[in-house]
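Dear colleagues,

For the upcoming journal club I promised to circulate an example of a predicted protein-ligand complex. I picked one with threonylcarbamoyladenylate because it came up in last month's discussion. The inputs are reproduced below in full, followed by the predicted structure.
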Amino acid sequence: MQTRTLSPNRSGLDAASAILGAGGLVAFPTETVYGLGADARNDMAVARIFDAKRRPQFNPLIVHVQDAETARTFVEWTDTADRLAAAFWPGPLTLVLPLRPGLGLSRLVTAGLPTLAVRVPAHPLARDLLETFDGPVAAPSANPSGRISPTTADHVRAGLSGRIEAILDGGACGVGVESTIVGLKNSPILLRQGGLPQEALEAALAAPLEQHQPDDALIAPGQMASHYAPAARMRLNADATRPGEILLGFGAAKGATLNLSRAGDLTEAAANLFRCLHELDASNPETIAVSPIPDHGLGRAINDRLARAAAPRP
Ligand code: TXA
Ligand code: MG
């Protein structure tokens, strides 16, 4: 794939928006760092983010929208959210709130969590792109997994060239570190230090902010197990079903109730993973057996999530 560089003008924005609409990936500048954007409603497009970044795990992603009015349609909004949004949006602040289900967001965006991270970026190009596209854009930082976040289009090109459709070049990012993340599910907690100083948040809240472990703890097995685990038991690397089991297949698996990807395509499998687990679990099977998934590329992230789902329950 040839990665196009798009200019920061009307035709660049239209091209970027069209790529997003077609399920493609576009890196775009925000005031913090460059994001790697995909249509947050498109499972395949969101799966491709993880593939392009070579991310071995499905971390939940931030959904970017053009204004607070749009943000509040996706989550259970609160007075505190209102206060923080009024004070700091658009800007380098991400709010984590309970997800309102049924609004068409890909389950891969939240990695199956019941909460959603939303942010209204301040960069004029990001805002223009969100307005032109007129839909929610899932975007992690536009770097390969484990590398530092990009603050110029050149950084993005160095890490992701040939793996994404386009880079919208808006020059260097002003803030240079990622957004501050605040969880508002219960009383406010600081989930990640970032571009908006803690002091500014505490001033707006008129209260000290409790600090959580680094947000990576979110994906630690102990914390996530309950979110990922279906009610059914799980048996992995199953070649055939046993009594009481239904099979989640992959590739040529026979007798599967659902198949992650008949073609054996790991991007398609990742796109289908959470939806398939939810659907199978809804039929209340004793055990969900899962075909072996190749352990390379996105297969590693799929196997990571399956292992968590199959882990012994407390
Ligand atoms: O400044 C930024 O926030 C940049 C720009 C592109 O917006 N984005 C960014 O995304 O830094 P990323 O994926 O590199 O980091 C997002 C962090 C992840 O560490 C993830 O764990 C956390 O946000 N996160 C996403 N959804 C969450 C949720 N529902 N609950 C808690 N943490 C969440
Ligand atoms: Mg990142």
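Two points we might discuss: Residues 219-227 have pLDDT under 50 and may be disordered. Residues 140-141, 149 surround magnesium ion (ligand 2) (CB under 6 Å).

See you all on Thursday,
B. R.
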